Amino acid sequence: MSNLLILPLLLPAVCALALVFIRTQSRLSRIFSIGTMAVSTIISLLLLVYVMYNKPIALDFGGWKAPFGIQFVGDSLSLLMVTTSSFVVTLIMAYGFGRAEKRAIRYYLPSFILFLTVGVIGSFLTADLFNVYVMFEVMLLASFVLITLGQSVEQLRAAIIYVVLNILGSWLLLLGIGLLYKLTGTLNFALVAQRIGEMDNQSSIVIVSMVFLIAFGAKAALVLFMWLPKAYAVLNTELAALFASLMTKVGAYALIRFFTLIFDEHDGITHPLLVFLSCITMLIGAFGVLAYKDIKKIAAYQVILSIGFIILGLGSNTYAGVNGAIFYLANDMVVKTLLFFLIGSLVYVTGYRQYRHLHGLAKQEPFFGVAFVIMILAIGGVPPFSGFPGKVFIFKGAIENGNYLGLALMIITSLIAMFSLFRIFFVMYLGNEKKGEEKIFKAIPVYRKSLIAILVGTVLAMGIIAPLIFKVTDNATHLNMDDGRYEKAVNPHLKKEAK
After folding, report:
1. Locate the NADH:quinone oxidoreductase/Mrp antiporter transmembrane domain: which residues (predicted)?
2. How much of the chain, in percent, has pLDDT values that exceed 70?
3. Is residue 185 packed enough to be buried (19+ CB in 10 Å), middle (13-18) or exposed (0-12)?
4. Quick one: DSSP state of residue 317?
5. Residue 304: which of 346, 352, 252, 341 has the closest Cα?
6. How large is the C-alpha radius of gyration of the chain?
């Protein structure tokens, strides 16, 4: 079973290379890429089910046991993230590039999307510090190409900020890895966590943890958000959905993994700081969604807002808060894909990014109304939609830890997030046309409506089957937060050696 763990990473990597040779056959390339990601999603889901009924899967490359060799670990947290990301990438590949299909093929964009996916999945599966850096770089190099290649001057300007901040974040990450290796003498997650718990020089660990917090925070857009709105606003629909569903979520995943498993000894310092940063991030997101009339920038600030919610749950350092953060992280991958599909479709059918130009759309596309309202209610955390269960547990965690300010901000900013999107909805469907004005909208392809419908169904399903998903997130929470449980489950031989 452990050998199957490499397939969710290997399949998109092989497909990305194969697309280079068959790129002139667009139909075959499209079928191959969608099929590959669909198979990867199914395999990831089966591995997740296996792990839930058994124990985490550890894959030691070359037969070298940890901590000497490269190790991948499939536990409930990593495989939940892999399954969700593979699912959304499948839909993004199916969404396609529309009129830009020929240009996308010419610039190898499908291959770069899959290479980015390889980096994301590798970041979820790797169980050693250096390979976190390697996988982040694979992901970032692909994203640098996607954000700049063959696009507008506006996008190139936005890309400068994106590239500079991510390079600085990568440098800090490498610095943190070096410092942590110097302190512990190992790169393996399980052994690092074990040795940190046995160390007397705890002040050094606090300093190193701050380096990792800044590095991962920059990638998650935690306060350091400057690159995100401009970059997302000028990306094509499918690329904006890709970035919104994956890029910041990898940073959030890393913060959850590191600050529950490794840097959990000084929760009186690091976790209150996480709560403070989450509150600032929520305020930034709230001001952003209110300040702009550009629907793409409103959607970009919705991404920032959701990161604040996730980190608030992590910062509470309670089982309920972290459980809710993991659930909301998986949910947000799906919801933000739906958000950018809808926003991109609105821009496509109307030709405008300002929501004041959207009035009259109800007469032609009532389908958008249903999908848009469901998406708004999911983002707002209204039951029974998928945003509700995660927020309830984050609320509970904030109350248990006394984070009443964070709780109040989360409630207020959730309402602001809903208001900003309902404002678009009301203009679309209730806005009055000027006298004598006749709006002509483009028709959106049926297959794209079908993809939106799949995401709407998923959002509804995640809310309905939340108790089943919580079994996964609860397992992930206890595995990472219970002292010694991860080490014992993944690398029991290391525990024996320590004794």
Report:
1. 128-416
2. 93
3. exposed
4. T
5. 252
6. 22
CA distance linking residue 109 with residue 55, whole number of Å = 38
| Residue scoring higher pLDDT (238 or 435) | 238
pLDDT for the residue numbered 438: 54
The end-to-end CA distance of the chain, in Å, is: 29
**How far apart (Å, rounded) are the C-alpha atoms in residues 293 and 403?**
33
Q: Can you say whether the dihedral through the CA atoms of 163, 164, 165, 168 is positive or negative? A: positive
Our count of domains for the chain comes to: 1
The pLDDT of residue 365 is above 70: yes
Can you tell me the distance from the alpha carbon of 346 to that of 441, in angstroms, rounded to the nearest whole number? 10
Q: What is the pLDDT of residue 366?
A: 80
pTM over 0.90: yes
Strand, helix or coil for residue 178: helix
How crowded is the C-beta side of 33, counted as CA atoms within 13 Å? 33
Burial 82-97 (b: 16+ CB within 10 A, else e): bbbbbbbbbbbbbbbb
What is the Cα–Cα distance from 322 to 284, expressed in whole angstroms? 22
Counted residue by residue, the chain has a size of: 499
**pLDDT digits 0-9 by tens, 311-322:** 999 999 999 999
The per-residue pLDDT for range 294-316, each reduced to its tens digit, is 899 999 999 999 999 999 999 99
The dihedral of CA 307, 388, 268, 254: what is its sign?
negative
- CA 425 centroid distance within chain: 25
Closest CA to 128 of 80, 58, 225, 50: 58
CA distance to 430, 478, 487, per residue, from 433 (Å): 9, 55, 63
Question: 147 and 228 in contact (C-beta within 8 Å)?
Answer: no
The 3-state DSSP class for residue 384 equals coil
Of the candidate ranges 99-113, 115-129, 370-384, 410-424, the one whose mean pLDDT is the lowest: 99-113
Written as six digits, the tokens of 254 are: 């890393």
Q: Which domain holds residue 216?
A: 2-498
